Input
Amino acid sequence: MTGNRSMLTRRSGFMPLWRARAAVTALFALGGFVFAGWAVRIPAVAHRMHAAPGELGVALLAMSVAAVATMSAGGAICRRWGAARVAPAAGWMLSATVVLPPMATSVPQLAMALTVFGVAFGALDVAVNTVAVDLVTALDRPLMPALHAANSLGSLAGAGVGAVLAANLSPVGHLLSVAPLGMVAASVAGWALTADPVPGAQPSPSGPVGAGSAGLVAMFGVIGLCAAFAQGGLDNWMPLHLRTDLGTTDGLAAAGYGIVQGAMTAGRLAGGALITAAGPGRVLLTGGVTACFGTTIAAITPWPWLALAGLALAGLGLANLFPLAIGAAGSSGGASGVAVATTLGYGGILLAPPAIGFAAESTGLASALLLVPVLVTGATVIGYTLRRRL
Output
């Protein structure tokens, strides 16, 4: 690895692969920004359609199915075309299709729009995480938490823009302004990855994960699934919980989403130093316990200020669970391992909305949100068991 780094340094100068690193960072941020733009407008879209939680859950399930199906084929797609090509193309598609859901006038139309959006979302996440693992390998640096921090920063920016525009623009007007920004950013990122190619991120005939590491990769994928389920639940339902159950304004509901993303950003920016100082196992255990405590408070408290404090704790705790899982899967199974773990992990982030929506039909939204700490507990237990392999 040292020889590889020396070769890259001689080839690229003082900052090896700086264009590629900037492009991957931008694509992570792009995914967070565009998805957050949609997520913070879910309450407004649901209110305009008079959609019940179960009906909204069905529409979100369509996005989940489309995204997971795309992710399951993500490894083969990236091997065929190269993750460095797929990632910017998927980012462009995600930006172009974010305008479709708010244009829907019925729940079936919303489900169709979210299906297209889900395909783009799934393709981007598999591809950008694959390029990220290859970049970490090429530079031999623990960049994964920082790269995922870019996703959180993008989400924070998207939520902030949404909170500001919610009082002045309809969801359609808001997301029509988001789409061209994302399309330009994806195009520039594609150029940068072409100008400064990442070793291993190009088309490759390598096959799927070998049998010896498949079980380990699957377990890391389950950790990612549980952690991502927590994030998906908070992203999609916490704004609605704050608005309808706790009686906050639309702006404060959107700010609750931003608090989670801001706390996750802070935790991920500190992730590399924390992992170096305490080790990945201890970081995962501490984060899991913190996230369980915070999400439970946010779900059960009747006071908005305490719910917001709980969301801050939840964001800090969740910050490094998913990056640790994806990085470990990549170390165990290579790029194909990343595809498997990302499929399982983002299956969680996309399955959380319909699961919580269906549970809310019978128990109420506050009780349904308690599914989040249950899944975080599962991720924590599995991660601590596998702490020596992280």
